[in-house]
Design brief:
The chain is α/β, with parallel strands linked by helices and 273 residues long. The protein contains 10 helices and 8 strands. Helix 5 links the parallel strand 4 and strand 5.
């Protein structure tokens, strides 16, 4: 991995707003300090591997993988404004990276993506998708045989698995409030700060993706579950809030740990060779 820390370059640039630097910055730091070392240790990433990220945002995660030797890097997202920021950032940092608007549920992969990637990353995306199984089957189309898929998400029944914090209202501060009956919860979220966030929180109430449901969908889609880890405090909280990471995987077989205590499920999957 190159020793250059891109954060200083981005922070000193006058071409990006503070919130753009913030979102890219914690993605990059999380990837550089946590994701890249962990996936190397698991044997899921090697220098020279082709790497793709679904829902890449500003592509900070991929920038760190490229520094660690990733090739043919691809980032996709449905949010074009975030990809536009990513394009500006990759130009600033002189990164060889392809960014593309794409919907993993309904958009067929481009021909050059098929069976082309050794590792695909899906960070905090799967819980927003109406059909996790379909997304996992579609990702198979871009993975090489024997390729790896790394997925992170907050299980729905966990303290903030309903993403109620997005609402920025009084009720959104409370853990587990999303587990109230639908009729009550939908009334409570109406005072949210933006209609788009209210709509998304209501959608998640219908999707309700649990850790066990995800693991079942992954196996049905033909993946081997190599490792599943669970966190009381997520690794990204160190970048966002300065909090320590607390892993509770040792207790994952106890009732309610995976579903109700884990703020993050991190699952490493692999396709058969």
């Amino acid at each position: 991995m190159t020793s250059v820390d891109f954060r200083a370059i981005v922070q000193q640039s006058p071409d990006f707003a503070p919130h753009e630097k913030y979102y890219w910055g914690y993605q990059y730091q999380l990837s550089r300090e946590v994701l890249v070392p962990e996936l190397i240790a698991r044997g899921a990433f090697h220098s020279g591997d082709a790497v793709a990220e679904i829902g890449c945002g500003e592509a900070g995660v991929l920038h760190a993988f490229i520094q660690a030797g990733a090739t043919k890097a691809l980032g996709t997202d449905i949010a074009t404004f975030r990809l536009e920021i990513g394009e500006k950032l990759k130009s600033l940092l002189k990164i060889d990276l392809t960014l593309s608007e794409h919907d993993i549920l309904f958009g067929p992969p481009k021909e050059e993506w098929r069976k082309a990637y050794d590792l695909v990353l899906l960070r905090d995306v799967i819980e927003h998708l109406d059909d996790a199984g379909l997304a996992l089957r579609n990702i198979r189309n871009i993975l090489k045989p024997g390729g790896w898929l790394f997925v992170t998400f907050p299980p729905y029944n966990s303290p903030y698995g309903g993403h109620q914090h997005l609402l920025k209202n009084f009720w959104g501060r409370f853990p587990y409030v999303h587990l109230l009956p639908k009729s009550i919860f939908l009334k409570m979220i109406q005072s949210g700060d933006h209609p788009r966030n209210i709509e998304e929180v209501a959608r998640l109430k219908e999707i309700r993706l649990s850790a066990n449901a995800f693991l079942k969908a992954a196996q049905e889609a033909g993946y081997e579950v190599v490792r599943d880890d669970y966190y009381l405090l997520r690794p990204v909280f160190k970048m966002k809030f300065g909090l320590p990471t607390i892993r509770i995987s040792a207790f994952k077989h106890l009732p309610f740990v995976k579903s109700f205590l884990s703020l993050e499920a991190a699952v490493l999957l692999r396709l058969p060779k």
